[in-house]
Amino acid sequence: MEYLLELLIFRYGYIGLTIALALGIVGVPVPDEVLLTYSGYLAGNGTLHPLLVVLCAFLGSAFGITVSYFIGLRFGYPFLLKYGPKLHLSHARIERAQGWMNQFGNLLLILGFFVPGVRHVTAYMAGMTRLKFGTFMFYAYTGALSWSVLFIYIGFILGDRWLQVKHYVHHYGFSFLLYGGIAALAYFSLRRLIAMRKVKA
Question: What is the pTM of this model?
Answer without folding.
Answer: 0.75
